[in-house]
Amino acid sequence: MAETTNLEVVTPSAIIVSEPVEMVVIPGSDGQIGALPRHSKVISTLDRGLVDIFNDNKISSQIMIDGGIAEINETTVTILAERAEKIDKANKQVLEEKLLDYQSQENHDDQNIAELAIKNSSFIKAVLDKIG
Q1: 44-60 burial, b for 16+ CB within 10 Å, e for fewer?
Q2: What is the C-alpha to C-alpha distance for residues 132 and 128, in angstroms, rounded to an integer?
Q3: Where are the domains of the chain?
Q4: Which of 29, 86, 99, 109 has the least CB density, counted as fewest CB within 10 Å?
Q5: What is the CA radius of gyration of the chain?
Q6: DSSP run (H or E) holding 103
Q7: Does an H or E element contain 118, and which?
Q8: pLDDT of residue 9
Q9: What is the CATH T-level fold of the domain 5-86, as seen in this structure?
């Protein structure tokens, strides 16, 4: 069995993933970062993009994140993201309904609600683009 590192992807509302993986590739602000077991310690900001999770020497799943922070060490990769969606488990119909809801709030009188709706809409559109 291949050596693994523990991957955790966490948002303010849920733990999206917590599992051992062979390798993870994350969208660092300065470029892609590949993390294997026994990786040196790194903290990096992240851009919006795909987190590629590898098992059995191939991508086993992908998660779209909306930026965040990653901490990598010898045994663990922890990603803290404001928004995250598992691409392989995404339900297109549910996402389209969420998108319509967020878009309806983009012109809300409360500027904070409007800004959050715009950010959420943008993220959902990016996820929908990835799942087709």
Answers
A1: bebbbbbbbbbeeeeee
A2: 6
A3: 5-86, 92-131
A4: 109
A5: 16
A6: helix 92-104
A7: helix 111-131
A8: 98
A9: ATP Synthase; domain 1 (2.60.15)
Per the structure block, which two tokens stand in for 20? Answer: 């051992």
Per the CB < 8 A criterion, the answer to whether 87 and 50 are in contact is yes
Structure tokens at 5: 């590192």
- How far apart CA 5 and CA 7 sit, in angstroms, is 6
C-beta atoms surrounding 99 within 10 Å: 18
pLDDT of residue 131: 87
CA nearest 92: which of 130, 129, 49, 128?
Answer: 128
> 131 and 50 in contact (C-beta within 8 Å)?
no
Mean pLDDT by 10 residues, the chain (132 residues): 90 96 96 95 96 96 96 97 92 93 94 94 93 82
CA gap 93, 30 in Å, rounded: 34
The two three-digit tokens of residue 48, written as one number: 């919006």
What lies within 8 Å, CB to CB, of 61 at 6+ separation is 53, 86, 87, 88
For the chain, the farthest-separated pair of C-alpha atoms sits apart, in whole angstroms, at: 56
